[in-house]
């Protein structure tokens, strides 16, 4: 069955960095676009970054442009989100999502940025 398992979240000071990983199983990762989303307390879930199946097209929400980088290693069945220059407002639960005919979500990983 399809599984998406996020890891790499944690507590970090403002200005610091974290690297999130999304390990995929149960399907061929190279066939699907993948995205990272986040949900802060009291707010709606928002798209953070998206990468096409080959990695040839990448998009980011404006608030993370220049700070976050999405990438993928199809051979390792893993999608990454490198987060640099973290801000307090980046605090959220971060989710990995598989697009396509049926969407799947991971369980999420908490990122907390402190001052």
Give a structural overview.
The chain has 115 residues and is mostly beta strands. It is built from no helices and 11 strands. It has strands at 3-7, 10-13, 18-25, 34-39, 46-51, 58-60, 68-73, 78-83, 92-98, 104-105, 109-114. The radius of gyration is 13 Å and the shape is globular. The model has no long low-confidence stretch (mean pLDDT 97).
Which keywords apply here?
single chain; 115 residues; mainly beta; 7-stranded mixed beta sheet; 4-stranded antiparallel beta sheet
In short:
The chain has 115 residues and is mainly β. It is 0% helix and 51% strand. The chain has strands spanning 3-7, 10-13, 18-25, 34-39, 46-51, 58-60, 68-73, 78-83, 92-98, 104-105, 109-114.
Which SSEs are present, and which pair or pack?
Elements: E1 3-7, E2 10-13, E3 18-25, E4 34-39, E5 46-51, E6 58-60, E7 68-73, E8 78-83, E9 92-98, E10 104-105, E11 109-114
Parallel strand pairs: 2-11
Antiparallel strand pairs: 1-3, 3-8, 4-5, 4-9, 5-6, 7-8, 9-10, 9-11
């Amino acid at each position: 069955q399809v599984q998406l398992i996020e890891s790499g979240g944690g507590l970090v000071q403002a200005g610091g960095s974290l690297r999130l990983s999304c390990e995929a199983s149960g399907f061929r990762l190279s066939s699907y676009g993948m995205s990272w989303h986040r949900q802060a307390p009291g707010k709606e879930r928002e798209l953070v970054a998206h990468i096409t199946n080959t990695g040839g097209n990448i998009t980011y929400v404006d608030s993370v442009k220049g700070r976050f980088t999405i990438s993928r290693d199809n051979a390792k069945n893993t999608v990454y989100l490198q987060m640099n220059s973290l801000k307090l407002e980046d605090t959220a639960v971060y989710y990995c999502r598989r697009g396509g005919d049926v969407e799947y979500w991971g369980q999420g990983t908490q990122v907390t940025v402190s001052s």
